Amino acid sequence: MLKTIGSLLGRKRPRGDGSSPAPALPDGRRIYAIGDVHGRLDLFEQMIERIESDDASREKADTLIILLGDLVDRGPDSAGVIAAARAWQNTRPVRMLMGNHEEMFLRSLNEEAALRQFLRFGGRETVMSYGLTREEYRTLRHDEVMARMEDLIPREVVEWLESAEDLIIEGDYVFAHAGIDPAVAIDAQSPSDLRWIREPFLSHPDRMNMCVVHGHTIRDEVEIHRISGWPNRIGIDTGAFRTGRLTALGLQGSERWVMEASQT
User: What does the alpha-carbon distance between residue 185 and residue 202 come to, in Å, rounded to a whole number?
Assistant: First the structure.
């Protein structure tokens, strides 16, 4: 269920010092948001190390890690990424958002039409990371692939994916995989928009009273879309599966910093 905070539009939050407006987290809170990993375990492991090091180098804080979704598909080791994320949750607070690729993955376990879509958009690599062989993929019918997926993918992994959240709100920030419909109150956002939306969100021309941190739409660099100085949104999907660059955003108070893991 989505937390009710009212519409994202219309309410201004004056900062009082005449400076450019800046969204902020509550005192003592620190957040690291990680963009779309897409099966790149090598980059994810590197990012975990960098975040742990960065967090340890700063003053003590109540730190939260937010995975913006699309851990799976396209890259070579979705199974490894999921295992690493679950292991990380055992050591510190880590919350995960449901991406459109997690949605396709879960639907493909029970719907043959969804499986066809899933396999076309990177799901082949995910299923093979759980042990489906190339020969099986080449020769099995779709219903047989579904049966093999049931055998190969542990039930606890499915349950973990099903537990992913749609939206997280912290201070002046909203975290969503793809974004939000800016014309709809935050408690009325549809899961489909949160996982799939591009327009009218990406180029929304009016200022929102909160800043949306999202992935889903690949850009060469971190993209900050500002309206009258206020960042309506910050996109941090730098296309890890094809560029070899995984991006994270660090937040504390009104400070922001960018971290990158890259292939060597």
Answer: 17
Name all contacts of 132-136 with Cβ < 8 Å and 24+ positions apart. Answer: none
pLDDT at position 27 is 97
pLDDT score, position 39:
98
Report residue 87 as tokens.
């292991």
The string of DSSP codes covering 117-157 is HHIIIIIHHHHHHTT--HHHHHHS-HHHHHHHHHHHS-HHH
Contact of 22 with 204, CB cutoff 8 Å: no
Q: In this model, does residue 1 exceed pLDDT 60?
A: no
Q: Which residue has the tokens 């992935």?
A: 215
Q: 197 and 215 in contact (C-beta within 8 Å)? A: no
Question: 226 has which bridge partners?
Answer: 231
Q: And the tokens for 7?
A: 């519409």
Element containing residue 251 per DSSP (H, E): strand 245-252
d(CA 105, CA 130): 13
Q: Mean pLDDT of all residues in the chain?
A: 92
User: Is the model's pLDDT at 36 over the cut of 90?
Assistant: yes
Residues 6+ away with beta carbon under 8 Å from 203 = 225
Main-chain phi, psi angles of 176, to 5 degrees: -145, 150
- What is the pLDDT averaged over residues 211-231? 97
pLDDT at residue 237 is higher than 70: yes
Query: For residue 26, what is the DSSP state?
Result: P
CA angle in degrees (0–180, nearest 5) for 220-167-130: 70
Would you give the DSSP letter of residue 236?
A: -
